[in-house]
Design a protein that fits this description.
The strands form six sheets. Strands 5-6-7 form a three-stranded antiparallel beta sheet, sandwiched between helices. The chain has a three-stranded mixed beta sheet with strand order 10-9-13, with no helix packed on it. The chain has a two-stranded antiparallel sheet with strand order 1-2. α1 packs parallel to α4 and α6 crosses α7. The protein is built from nine helices and 14 strands. It has 295 residues and is α+β, with helices and mostly antiparallel strands.
């Protein structure tokens, strides 16, 4: 809905952990790990600097606790432990991160670690971070709902609050992640769900914890107030019936694989018109998911 310098290269700080979480949730889905898998804490994980969940070297910590430590407490030690559990080493995990970034279309991003600790080759853009956060919420809705709205987590007799202030002041906000280093400033990716409609905000480089929260709140409020969401088509609803050549059947129905809605300025919802242009001359076989035209 709005953007300022969306493709400028920036340091992601702990926003990097969104990709660590994305790959962790993917590993859970693939059964590479399970929530109660005990992970032995390495020297490297234990020694990792910055924010911590305070896991102890050579102890075993369940994956579920490590996820909470990574998301709620922004624990760098938890990230390294998860990276090693999933990929064998943080270096191998960083390669996985870059492959996934490429698959998601994050063309302005390079990962070198699982934590976001400063590195000359660790960088991203606001647009790529929005892409990543959207993918996380879309592809892992249950995991997102379970972890990202947690307001605090207690581990090793230490209770730490979620650094996302909006969770405490706006009941419609249910995530996503804070980040901070000297170079990156105070950053916050936030998301709110109001009347079944979700908006995402990416705010980078502010001067304080309170500034990133207030600026994110302003953006979310502006988006909800200034724009309407218009539902055009539901998943698998036929938009058009097209002629097919050389097939067992002479026609095929075309539609969307997900619910299709668009945002329009407030008051313009009833002015939306659609125009469908089919691909010329469709030859069988036609596969599910194949592009058949432009709406």
């Amino acid at each position: 809905l709005t953007a300022e310098k969306p493709d400028e290269r920036i340091e992601p700080a702990s926003l990097t952990k969104l990709m660590t979480a994305y790959l962790t949730f993917a590993a859970l889905r693939q059964k590479t790990i399970v929530l109660d898998t005990p992970v032995t804490v390495s020297q490297k994980a234990w020694k990792t600097g910055g924010s911590k969940m305070f896991i102890r070297v050579d102890t075993q910590v369940p994956v579920d606790d490590l996820i909470k430590g990574m998301i709620v407490q922004s624990g760098n030690d938890a990230c390294v432990a998860l990276a090693e559990a999933i990929a064998g080493s943080e270096e191998s995990f960083a390669q996985m991160m870059n492959r996934e970034a490429k698959r998601l279309g994050m063309s302005g991003t390079s990962f070198t670690n699982s934590t976001g600790l400063p590195d000359p080759q660790l960088y991203t853009t606001a647009r790529d971070l929005a892409t990543l956060a959207s993918a996380l919420i879309r592809d892992f809705p249950e995991e997102y709902k379970r972890y990202y709205s947690m307001k605090e987590f207690r581990y090793n007799n230490i209770t730490q609050p979620n650094r996302n202030r909006l969770l405490f002041i706006d009941p419609t906000v249910d995530g996503v992640k804070t980040g901070h280093t000297e170079a990156a400033g105070y950053c916050l990716i936030s998301s709110a769900l109001r009347d079944k409609r979700r908006l995402l905000s990416v705010v980078l480089g502010t001067v304080s914890d309170s500034a990133r929260a207030s600026e994110s709140q302003k953006l979310l409020n502006w988006g909800f107030i200034s724009y309407d969401a218009v539902s055009l088509f539901t998943k698998d609803q036929p938009v058009a019936t097209l002629r097919v050549w050389k097939g067992a059947q002479s026609e095929v129905k075309a539609g969307f694989t997900t619910d299709m809605s668009i945002a329009v300025p407030k008051g313009y919802a009833d002015k939306v018109k659609s125009d469908f242009v089919a691909e010329p001359r469709l030859i069988a076989p036609i596969e599910a998911g194949q592009k058949l035209g432009m709406l």
